Amino acid sequence: DVKVTQSSRYLVKRTGEKVFLECVQDMDHENMFWYRQDPGLGLRLIYFSYDVKMKEKGDIPEGYSVSREKKERFSLILESASTNQTSMYLCASSRAGKNTEAFFGQGTRLTVV
Amino acid sequence: AQSVTQLDSQVPVFEEAPVELRCNYSSSVSVYLFWYVQYPNQGLQLLLKYLSGSTLVKGINGFEAEFNKSQTSFHLRKPSVHISDTAEYFCAVSAINTGNQFYFGTGTSLTVIP
Known about the structure:
The structure holds 2 protein chains of 2 kinds. By secondary structure, chain A is mainly beta. Chain A has strands at 4-6, 10-13, 19-25, 31-38, 42-51, 54-57, 64-70, 73-78, 87-94, 103-104, 108-112. In chain A, strands 2, 4, 5, 6, 9, 10 and 11 form a 7-stranded mixed β-sheet that branches. In chain A, strands 1-3-8-7 form a 4-stranded antiparallel β-sheet, with no helix packed on it. In chain A, β4 and β5 form a beta hairpin. Chain A is globular and about 40 Å long. Chain B is mainly beta. In chain B, 0% of the residues lie in helices and 53% in strands. In chain B, strands 2, 5, 6, 10, 11 and 12 form a 6-stranded mixed β-sheet that branches. In chain B, strands 3-9-8-7 form a 4-stranded antiparallel β-sheet, with no helix packed on it. In chain B, β10 and β11 (103-104) form a beta hairpin. The mean pLDDT of chain B is 92. At the A-B interface, β4, β5, β9 and β10 of A face β5, β6 and β10 of B.
């Protein structure tokens, strides 16, 4: 089975801190995604990556950056955390091309105080 | 681009009753369609998917969905729900020509009442 692992289930950070959310997948998937989930808004794509060192902005990239130095690892970075970034963050991965589905991690619930 | 509309944000239903969760999509190209379930404080788990072939798709936990191309719909159904089906359900699409991005609806919260 595909496994997508997010490094933390719960995080509490202070406003202005630099925050790293880590995600690792073990199925050699080309694509990796970071979503943000808020009540009533569903999942909104922050960034995705289709290869090592490649990234594309999603719908809400402002205030975030990403890093993909190795195929299995995709990091989301909040350069200076703000209270409006309090949310559930979900990482996902998928194979490139057709007939593919997304596999999700357990999520990281981030609270910025 | 693709988009997904889930028409009902909350659906309460009594235990052992049938349920239908509605999903409509818009796309200028052919799509793959998915339903995911999310239990509290967990990630999303795939329920079922439509890639091609039969328009009636069966998934896990007794759920099924029907792809209707003319109505651009992919409604999720279960003939008899259990308490354990209480969860958030998300419909998603991805384009056949790329398969690289997934677009999600805003979710439907299913509450099964004893």
